[in-house]
Amino acid sequence: MAYTTIDDPSAHFHIQLYTGNGSSGHSITNDANAGDFKPDWLWIKPRSLSDNNVSLDSTRGQTKRIKINSTDAQDTDSTAIITFETDGFDLDTTDQNFNQNSATYVAWQWKANGGSLTTASESGSNVGYSRQVNTTAGFAIIKYTGLGSVAAVIHGMSATPAFFTVKRLSGGGYSWYTYHHKNTQYPWTDNLYLNNQDGTTDNDTVWDDQAPNSTEIKVGTNGGVNGDGIEYIMYAFAEKQGYSKFGSYVANGSSDGPFIYTGFKPAWVLAKRSNGGSENWNINDNKRSPFNVTKRKLSPNLSNAEAEDTGYSIDFLSNGFKIRNDGGDHNSTGDTYVYVAFAEHPFVSSEGVPVTAR
Fold it and tell me: In whole numbers, what is the pLDDT of the chain averaged over residues?
């Protein structure tokens, strides 16, 4: 069996930096190695100014956005239209969150199914949904309608999800309920919140204390994931060797921090202390920091502008990443951190060829 089935991760995940021009009709062209890259999940964050992490996807449509660092409901804004194109996206807006003149931005992007949806009506304890799935990369975008009673979300990935996050689309005050399969010994009994600093919460009304499987994800009676007649969006991922990894590590509190094996050279790493405390989620990537040590800080739960932070330093290596700081964001002695990582290159290609470090 080949080490990986994804030799070029940029066919499924891409990071694009761009500079705003303050004019409507600003076209952003992706420069993915694999060629044309049309996003299905587009996550935009201003780098040079303070404004929101914003999630857009081809399932909900181009005028609908959700703030990841907030509990706000979905916002529909016909004056801030973002169109997914064959090789990037168009910004028909002058909103500073996307396109202020001379401001810098990062766009993290994932492919699902090109906006082509599979739909199903509510049936018994199965929710009704519109979904698109990339089975090769283990990614699904699922818009579903809650039942108010324990229910199943049929995800379509044909593999057990390792990480997923859910946001209620209507009504303010609802967090991004987030599952990570290495969060605790029994992760289906717990959840994290992508929009805040909180550690793990034990709550049997979120995933109904039932583990996800290769067919479905259970949601409990919590209004944040399964209110009767309420619409939700879910982004779900399954691990794919050489492309994605959803793991955990125990910190040693040293500037010579732990090495975390992923099986690929990372392009993007999201990490969060999970066993308590009030630490931020943090993202390192290979575009904002093209050389080691990577230390340009952005956080999904904050609107802060990007900052270079020596307390937030990791090295991207050919087969994983190594912590290079002793701060609480990544490496507080004895604490446990969960991470989400996507590859720049697999450690070994499908033809058995190893890649090099940075």
Answer: 94
Instruction: Mark residue 158 as left, alpha or beta (left: phi above 0; alpha: psi -120 to 50; beta: remaining).
Output: left
Q: Which residues does 197 contact at the CB level (< 8 Å), separation at least 6?
A: 277, 278, 279, 280, 281, 301
Q: What is the pTM of this model?
A: 0.96
Q: Determine how β-strand 176-180 pairs with β-strand 163-168.
A: antiparallel
**Per-residue pLDDT tens for 293-334?**
998 989 999 999 998 876 778 999 999 999 998 888 888 999
Task: Give the Cα separation of 310 and 95 in Å (integer).
Answer: 31
Q: Which one-letter amino acid corresponds to residue 92?
A: D
Backbone angles phi, psi at 187, to 5 degrees: -65, -20
* Torsion, CA 173, CA 91, CA 61, CA 137, rounded to 10: -90
244: number of Cβ within 10 Å: 26
Cα(158)–Cα(196) distance, integer angstroms: 31
- Which residues lie closer than 8 Å to 221 by C-beta, 6 or more apart? 148, 149, 150, 205, 208
- What is the share, in percent, of the chain residues with pLDDT greater than 70? 96
